[in-house]
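Minutes, project check-in
Item: structure for the 384-residue chain
Input as provided by the requester:
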Amino acid sequence: MAGIYLHIPFCKQACYYCDFHFSTSLKKKEELVSCLVKELELRKEELQNEEIETIYFGGGTPSLLSVEELRLLIDTIYQNYTVVSNLEITLEANPDDLSEEKIIELSETPVNRLSIGIQSFFEEDLQLMNRAHNAQEAKNCLSVATRYFDNITIDLIYGVPNMSNERWRENLQIAFDFEINHISSYALTVEPKTALDSFIKQGKYPDVDETVAKEHFDILVAETTKNGFVHYEISNFGKPNYFSKHNTSYWLGKKYIGIGPSAHSFNKTHRSWNVANNAKYIKAIQEGKLPLEQEKLTKKDQFNEYLMTGLRTIWGVSLEKIEEDFGEEFRKNLLKNAEKFINQGLLVVTSSNFGKNQNCIEKLKTTSKGKFLADGLASELFII
C-alpha cells in the first residue's frame, strides 16, 4: 500500500508563521497543473507494485484549484496507478474558498475528505496570523461543509500570543458543537525567516511562550478525550474510524511519492524531494526531466526516522521490529538509553500478548506526561 501527495504551491496571501513553499501569484497555475499531470505519468513505475490507498492535495492552498483541475489530476492517477476501492482523497482548503457552491461541486467529485485550515474561530488570532479568512467565514464554511461531507478535519493553532486558556477552550467547544470528527492541532512555532520571526525580533509581537503552549496542549488532550476523540498522534485527534489514513501511512513508514515543487517522496530506503521553485520545476518537467534530489537512508537514518515517527503515535515503537530490521544491538542500546526517561515517567515499555502460542509484542511508548516532549525524547534516543 502507498500514498500520493500533490503539492499545490499557491496561496492568496502569506500567513505570518508559514515557511512552506508557495507563491501568491496564480499566473502559472494552468502550466503547473499540466506539469503535475506529466510528473504523475513520468513516475508511475515507482509504485507499479503498490496499490494506492490515499491521495492528498496539500500546499499551499489546494482549494484554489478548480473542480475541473482536481478531476484531471485524480483521473490521471486512476489511469496510471492501481487504486484501492475505498480510496481516501483529502483536499486541504481554506474557509474563504469554500462557498456553498464550491462545497457542493466538491461533493460531486471523488474527494471524500476535507482538511479545513480554520486555525482559530476568533478574529484577533486570525489577524495576528494574517489569515485570509475571518471568524464568521470559518463558522459559515463548517455549517455548510458538514452537510455535504462526513469526513472533515480542521486545523487549530494553540500557544498564540494573548490567547487565554478560556479562549482556547472556546475554540475547541465550537469545533465540538459542529460535530467535527477529526482535529489536527499544532503549537504556534516561530520558523526562521518568516514574517512572524521578524515581527518578534522587532518587538512588534510578543514571543511565543512554551509554558502557555503546554497549558493549551493539556487542555486540548483533556477536552478531546472528554468528547470521544482518540489522541492517536501528538498533533492529531480523531473519533474512531476517522483517523487520517494518509498521515498514518507516513507514521507507519509506508511508501509515498510527492508530486509538485518541494514535494518529498519516500520508498523505505531512499528519500527524495523536488526543487522548491515553481519556474525551475515547470521547465524541468516540460523537458521530461524529474527535478529532484535523492539521498540513500543508512540503517541509522532509518532507525532514527522510525523512532521519531513511532514515539509520536499511540502505536509506539515495536522492539520486535527494531530487532528484526536493525539487529539485537540496536534494541539493547535503545532500551539502555531509554532507561532514564522510563524512570522519569516519560516513556514506558508495554506488552501485548496475542494468544498462547504467539510471542509477546513489546513496545516503547510515550506516557501522557511524555507526549508533549515526544520529538525531544526521540532526538535524545537517536543514533548520531
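Outcome recorded: The chain has 14 helices and 15 strands.
No further action items on this chain.
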